[in-house]
Amino acid sequence: MHKALVMEVDACTGCHQCELMCSYGKVGAFNPAKSVMDITQYDGGAINVPSTCTQCQEAWCMVVCPVQAITVNPSTGAKEVSAEVCVGCKVCTIACPFGAINYDPDSGVVTKCDLCGGEPMCVEACPTTALAYVAEDSTGYDKMLRSATLAAGLDAPRA
Amino acid sequence: MSWTGNVLRVNLSAGTCATEPTNMEWAHDYMGQRGLATKYLVEETDPKVDPLSPENKMIFATGPLTSTIAPTSGRWSVICKGPLTGAIACSNSGGFFGAELKNAGWDMVIFEGKSASPVYLDITNDVAELKDASDLWGKSVWETETTLRDRRGDPDVRVASIGLAGENGVLYAGVVNDLDRAAGRSGVGAVMGSKNLKAVVVRGTVGVKVADPMALMKSSNAAKEILAEHAVTGTGLPTHGTQVLMNIINEVGALPTRNCQDVQFDGAHDISAEAMAEVRESDGQANLVSNHACFGCPISCARRSKIDPTHFTVKDKPQYQHVSGGLEYEAAWALGAANGVNDLEALTYANFLCNEQGLDPISLGSTIGAAIDLYASGAITEEDTGGVALEFGNTEAFVSMVEATARGEGFGKELGQGSKRLCEKYGRPELSMTVKGQEFPAYDPRGIQGMGLTYATSNRGACHLRSYTVSSEVLGLPEKTDPLVTDGKAGLVKAFQDLTAGVDSSGTCIFTTFALSGDDIAPMVDASCEGDWSVERFVEVGERIWNMERQYNIAAGFTGADDTLPARLLKDAAKTGPAKGHVNRLDEMLPEYYELRGWDASGVPTAETLNRLGL
Q1: What's the pTM value of the predicted model, to 2 decimals?
Q2: I want to staple B250 with a disulfide (CB 3.0 to 4.6 A). Which of B186, B255, B263, B559 is the partner?
Q3: Which residues of chain B have a CB within 8 Å of the CB of A30?
Q4: Comparing C-alpha atoms, which of B604, B497, B592, B597 is closest to residue B561?
Q5: Which residues are paired to B122 by β-bridges?
């Protein structure tokens, strides 16, 4: 089974370490502007929302690409952009409902999360539990457990 | 590598922006940020210059580790001659502005001269332009930042600006970035205001390359692991913020209270981290909303707070009812204990005002404390204060003084000159709790002896961030020393001063040093920068910087006689707590400190010392 990136808003402190590592993996420099993981801050940083591509099963970016520049990596399930094939038409950026694929004017092609080949650098960099890489059938499980625990009036689940 | 190699020189008199290469010879000797920018200032300005004249320069500086994967890589500094002290001023800030400036491709921005009318500097990578700020003059930091962000239409731009305090020449006005992070001390905001520079807006997409990325990741990961596992950086600071100290320092008997009349405050718990987390009866919420990280920081010690909307300070003021930067320990102490005020919500409001208008809460709180002491002694009356009965513990009176200072109105104009000038004006200079004109922070040197030497010898006037011996004397890091003993403190202060100068100049945060030693930090510099950066070189650069700053101050007119403390700390013994009966015994530490520094008996670096350090 493939794994998926999960992002926990409550745990994110907005430190941007994930963006630093991501950008290094993408362009070989520490440059948050080139990261495909993005932290959006609200209330001056009281709320921090990490977001990136969730690797849709039926990926609209891939479907609409006129030159088949986006393909599935069978080992990770990631939809990966080939910089050699991409012509920079940006149709995928319109098709993606989440804004998770974007055009980079410096390289002339689109960029998106490719799960770093199965070892996401953002997860490695995250100093909290805000980012995790888990089996794709359990992305909501921890959240469900927390909600249930809260509903039961407990601090932690117990048998 | 790691340095961008570019300096932006902005001549405000001529209205020009020019690029020049970073002096790499200096970068190798002074690293970056605090050290490198001070070297530029020393070389380019007369130490006797009037700090608020066009001839003073102001430098925004990043370090070689700024915006790298090294933990806490969001630091930047403002360097100039300080108007509060007349000494070298270097004020360090976190947030996100510094990393953005580095990402735009700049090691530093040097501002010189004075603009004929208000301007702001607009930077996008290598394009820099001065723009009219007439419509922003008179606006707060919050309004300025929001306006400029909206004007650019880019949510990722970062802004550093001054509020009314900087415009009005409050001598402890700060430069505020990201709404509530501040280069707060020594009046760097007043220098910015004197140049008619309202703000700097920056967007950077160039990024930062380092010499050996793999080695940096390895050393950074090792450092992050140590920080995560350490009790202070992994648990205490993320959970409680710097406010974790309020109850601890009070119990040690080193919480300067009511303008240093006492060393313990009976209201300490009411204004502590623990109190910030307690749920209020009025709205069912706690003052503390969450913690928050500066750029690149795994510690995440910053506070986000929300004031009780029913509190008298904000009841009819929706603009202060949102979530914003909450109380840090120094602010909670200065605004609270120093004035005998134990109203947490009022202190949070005062802190918001400091962020909104760009004031240093340490100097502001301490100055109000001195004013209350003047009032108690009869040196000032209600005629001076505009009808306000200034008494310790009077929350309403305290809040009215904060508002008056933030707006530059009435007695607030006097308070804006700092406690030294205030107390001198009214004939009671001994009531000013300052060194070299700067108010000292939240550690009473009668209860923590090493902090007395720290304040007395700090190059920017009294300051805890130049050698935080509290770490050793109270927290036992890296080794416990007795806070009431003077033996060994000279060496401790020197070691902390040199290491801190190095950490500041690297572009990382000194809070890492609770857990990290030079042996952990130097490898990150070594991996990022050209050349070999051993821990010995790292600390030697720190020592070189310290002596350079000292030389600047001597040239500015300071002498060994200025390395002293207010008489109250040297003569009036602490009345309660573990330090009861103790004064600060500076005379037992200072001569040894001079000797260890390689300075003569009057505190001047010897020729041998200067030669050894290449000065």
Answers
A1: 0.97
A2: B255
A3: 67-69, 207-210
A4: B604
A5: B129, B201
